């Protein structure tokens, strides 16, 4: 009985180490000077239109302020 328990624990350990060694792909971010991807914003504050995309703001100065209350 002990040999089966030891074999099970050993098998699970080998599987856990094998799974942990699989590399995960790194997300690609935007570098300085790279063009921003087009996205759509549905809710604006102090903006007269409803939904807008980044392409609609081309040629304007845009300041994005991201914050959160904890």
SSE diagram, text form:
Layout: H1 2-20, E1 40-41, E2 52-53
Antiparallel strand pairs: 1-2
Give an overview of the whole structure.
- By secondary structure, the protein is mainly alpha-helical.
- The chain has a domain of 33 residues.
- Helix content is 27%, strand content 6%.
- The protein is built from 1 helix and 2 strands.
- Strands 1-2 form a two-stranded antiparallel sheet.
- The longest helix is centred in the N-terminal third of the chain and has 19 residues.
- The radius of gyration is 25 Å and the shape is elongated.
- The termini are far apart.
Short description:
This protein has one helix and two strands; from the N terminus they run αββ.
What series of H and E elements makes up the topology? HEE
Work out the helicity level.
25-40%
Instruction: Report the uncertain regions.
Output: none
Q: Which strand order spans the largest sheet, edge to edge or round the barrel?
A: 1-2
Spatial separation of the terminal alpha carbons: 53 Å
The helix tally amounts to 1
Chain-averaged pLDDT: 79
Structural class: mainly alpha
Strand element count? 2
Rg calculated over all Cα atoms = 25 Å
Task: Determine the strand fraction and express it as a percent band.
Answer: 5-15%
Largest sheet data? 2 strands, antiparallel
Outline, from the CA principal axes?
A: elongated
